[in-house]
Design a protein that fits this description.
Blueprint: E1 2-7, H1 10-20, E2 27-32, H2 35-39, E3 43-45, H3 51-60, E4 65-68, H4 71-75, H5 78-84, E5 89-90, H6 98-101, H7 103-112, E6 120-123, H8 126-136, E7 140-144, E8 153-156, H9 159-170, E9 211-215, E10 220-229, E11 233-235, E12 240-241, E13 244-246, E14 250-253, E15 258-261, H10 268-288, E16 294-303, E17 309-315, H11 323-329, H12 334-343, E18 357-364, E19 388-392, E20 395-398, E21 401-404, E22 408-416, H13 419-430, H14 446-450
Parallel strand pairs: 1-2, 1-4, 2-3, 4-5
Antiparallel strand pairs: 6-9, 7-8, 7-9, 10-11, 10-16, 12-15, 13-14, 15-18, 16-17, 18-22, 19-22, 20-21
Bound molecules: adenosine monophosphate and glycine.
């Protein structure tokens, strides 16, 4: 059978890699794909991003199943369009994707359904936002409303930083209409055209002229991802991402610099609480509001010292780079699972996981996240093994050789008996890889190792 993966990042490379392992899958198309999916003779890149053209392609090629990686096509209604045309696709509808595409929608939704999250207010008026921040004090969190690839958020340690963030997000004088995150996401963490002048790494007017100002939550973060078929929910292995650019969680927020699975902070007790207090009420709350949720639902959690989880954000897709370690640990046939998820029979699915840990280290381009450079030649890539894969993200092929083409370039992902061993192996594997200006963290997995 033929499968179509929409997207071109490391997450989509990992999905395509995993789908190829199914004996039922003959061909995997990736639209648009990247240099890694182009170099793999078993995968086929398709240079289409337009939704109607993708549906035409799926029809013409008799694609059995389509799965969507990034948020941009979901928020743009690609699932609605495929379904109207009778095509099988896994993902949320445009209405359901609002849980991610509008932070204001998500926050109001959580308030209506008593889902634990940070207290907040929404502002479109800069003066009112400044006054609120002054009254609340720091630390405080300022978020642009709309899709911002994890970069429209400032966790302000001081009031000065908070006021500056409000100016960057709400002040019309500097806005640049070029800056919407309108590309097919993820190997283009590079939409921040004029962000170089911006000390906070905030996208100008990243998601429209509204900000959400939130209470600062203290604790440890985890990524909690489930699959939902509209009625039934199956949780994936837990994971933890590293959102800041530099070691020890310093520097600006990024799309994610590395991840590992499982996340020990999600104890069985925390897991049960998340399902009961966050996941089930979210699916039920959406249904009560007339929106059937299908697709991956990703709750970004902050878990406090008492083990109480709160929702930092929802995404309506898998995480990148969390997908890379998660799918390396998945033993079940992903094609079968996705067929069940689009048949409404996830209640019959029990996912099987490798007991080992998986860890992925992201290598980013020169200048990421503010101004990633393209076109640097990449050398020294290791060959693939069953327990060690270099997933590509922002790469393309130039005369058959890989070059950088986006913010996050590669994700070196390995399976090993512990997070510590996986970390060692990943950094060993990374050693020979070279390109000008490469950036990566040297401490991926540190929280799990510290435990
Ligand atoms: P978001 O795009 O909402 O996931 O935010 C990006 C990152 O900012 C999160 O992964 C957290 O590290 C941090 N963050 C967001 N909201 C809060 C909050 N209310 N308290 C503390 N940290 C936060
Ligand atoms: N790695 C964070 C995300 O995918 O949103």
């Amino acid at each position: 059978m033929k499968v179509l993966v929409i997207g071109g990042g490391g997450r989509e490379h990992a999905m395509a890699w995993k789908l190829l392992q199914s004996p039922k899958v003959q061909t995997v198309f990736v639209a648009p794909g990247n240099g890694g999916t182009a170099a793999d003779k078993r995968l086929h890149n398709v240079a289409i991003t337009d939704h109607a053209a993708l549906a035409d392609f799926a029809q013409a090629e008799r694609i059995t199943l389509t799965v969507v990686g990034p948020e941009v096509p979901l928020a743009g209604g690609v699932v609605d369009l495929f379904r109207e045309r009778g095509l099988r696709i896994f993902g949320p509808t445009q209405a359901a994707a609002q849980l991610e595409s509008s932070k204001a929608f998500a926050k109001a939704f959580m308030k209506r359904h008593a889902i634990p999250t940070a207290a907040y207010e929404v502002f479109s008026d800069a003066a009112a936002a400044h006054a609120y921040v002054t009254a609340q004090g720091a630390p405080i969190v300022i978020k642009a409303d709309g899709l911002a690839a994890g970069k429209g958020v400032v966790v302000a340690a001081s009031l000065d930083e908070a006021h500056q963030a409000i100016d960057w997000m709400l002040n019309p004088r500097d806005n640049n209409s070029d800056n919407g995150n309108n590309g097919n996401n993820d190997n283009n963490d590079n939409n921040d055209n004029n962000a170089a002048a911006n000390p906070l790494g905030v996208q100008h007017n990243a998601g429209g002229a509204r900000v959400v100002i939130e209470e600062f939550l203290d604790g440890e973060e985890a990524s909690f991802i489930v699959m939902c078929d509209g009625k039934n929910v199956v949780s994936l292995a837990t994971s933890q991402d590293h959102k800041r650019l530099l070691d020890a969680d310093a520097g600006p927020n990024t799309g994610g610099m590395g991840a590992y699975s499982p996340a020990p902070v999600v104890t069985p007790n925390v897991h049960a609480k998340v399902m009961k207090e966050i996941i089930h009420p979210t699916i039920a709350g959406m249904a009560a509001e007339g929106i059937v949720f299908t697709g991956f639902l990703y709750a970004g959690l902050m878990i406090d010292a008492q083990g109480q989880p709160r929702t930092v954000e929802f995404n309506c897709r898998m995480g990148d780079p969390e997908t890379q370690p998660i799918l390396m640990r998945l033993k079940s046939d992903l094609f079968d699972v996705l067929m069940s998820a689009t048949d409404g029979s996830l209640n019959e699915v029990e996912l099987e996981w490798d007991r080992r840990a998986a860890l992925g280290v992201v290598m980013a381009a020169h200048g990421y996240p503010l101004d990633p450079r393209k076109g640097d030649a990449i050398t020294g890539l290791p060959s693939e093994a069953a327990d060690a894969v270099v997933f590509h993200a922002g790469t393309s092929l130039k005369d058959g050789q890989p070059v950088t083409s986006g913010g996050r370039v590669l994700c070196i992902t390995v399976l090993a008996d512990s997070v510590k061993l996986a970390q060692q192996r990943a950094y060993d594997l990374l050693q020979p890889i070279q390109y000008s200006g490469m950036q990566f963290r040297r401490d991926i997995g540190f929280r799990a190792i510290k435990r």
